[in-house]
Design goal:
homodimer; 4-stranded mixed β-sheet; 44% helix; alpha+beta
Chain lengths: 232, 232
């Protein structure tokens, strides 16, 4: 069966709102489905019934994941795990912290981990907020394996990109894409020497003023707005 | 070529010392080599020249990794990375910490991560300290894929075990072992409900008084001794 763009359009239309922040998400979803049509092995799906991009029902399932991913809050959660007491024992023995200090540290450590996850999530949101109107499509919703953004070069060849917040984050396994397309990788920050990597963005993401100061402003605005929204 | 136990014995003999803590490591190394002979696909090796367990030179290379792994210190290191400033920004916005608090928290967070790594490493050392004389062989030195301990059941079939400190640690990829042997998994602590899992040790590790209090005592003794040794 060939790719039915009209069917995708019709399906995604049911999910659209007039929220200006969601403008262009229909185009992104269509292109992501086209990419999956060209590269069916990139679908990341745990259960047995893999949705197909050539039928209405499959498209609905994917659109739901896509829009849920976009609309979920990336405000840091309250930690849901119970700290390992052995870590506090090591902290006392190795670094000389008191038991009392460790009680505080273990909470702050959990908050730090939640904050780290938040930075990773907001990095993708920031890139999407700038690049969506430049022909880059954010693969949100976690159903594309090891790929965060896709686009096409001037010859119509897929460009695929994996984003990491840090150079020491483990890369997801990333087997090859069809037609010899390689997954490009970009990370934001250097863990060893410090500093950021905005000067090294993939070529087709350059020229749109993406920067660390832009990211800081985006993060602060996002968290303020989310806090207000969640407290309502 | 068949497995040459004599050759392994002769090779490992050059690495032995009379340190009582290392007693029995020669037997462990021999059995690990035998396991690799039976399951060559479990060798984890990055460079091209994979050492062979059937020649002297390959055995030397493996023995070196094995003993280096055993003899290295698992005392928590001083952090070698530079914290991501964006994490502190999120901590302030989301949890209301002050910038000054964040300066302290980011160091303590790094120490916590180093302490977590230490707990994972010492968990294997603790198990080895009790189980080595019970026919369990610790795969230290990181050259066996996704396996931490091996032993044999009463029918002479390999038993292979992966150990994790916590139920939410990602499992290493663990493709099947020959003869349908499955990699058993055991984790020490529950991240969601709290508490530990010593009551659920794999059958052949039971009966040797492995326990949380035994682990605590081991960790405290190890760190005190290592501290004294490293300060000398």
């Amino acid at each position: 069966m060939s790719f039915d763009e009209e069917l995708v359009k019709k399906t995604v239309a049911e999910f659209l709102t007039d929220n200006p922040k969601e403008q262009g998400l229909d185009v992104a979803f269509i292109e992501i489905c086209r990419f999956l049509y060209d590269n069916p092995n990139r679908l990341s799906w745990r259960s047995k019934n893999k949705p197909s991009v050539t039928d209405k029902n499959g498209l609905k399932i994917l659109a739901e994941k896509f829009f849920n991913g976009f609309r979920r809050s990336d405000f840091p959660a309250e930690p849901g795990t119970i700290p390992d007491e052995m870590v506090s024992i090591v902290m006392q023995q190795a670094y000389g912290y008191s038991a009392e200090q460790c009680e505080k540290i273990k909470i702050e450590h959990q908050h730090s981990m939640c904050a780290e996850n938040c930075v990773g999530a907001l990095l993708e949101r920031y890139l999407d907020s700038v690049l969506r109107k430049q022909g880059w499509h954010w693969c949100c919703g976690d159903f594309i394996k090891a790929i965060d953004f896709i686009s096409k070069d001037k010859n119509g060849k897929w460009l695929v990109l994996q984003i990491k917040n840090r150079d020491n984050t483990e890369n997801s396994s990333s087997s090859a894409i069809r037609n010899g397309t390689e997954i490009q990788k970009w990370f934001r920050s250097f863990s060893k020497k410090g500093g950021t990597n905005w000067d090294n963005l993939p070529e087709l993401m350059q020229g749109y003023n993406l920067s660390e100061s832009g990211f800081v402003a985006f993060v602060e605005k996002y968290l303020k707005e989310e806090k207000a929204r969640l407290n309502n």
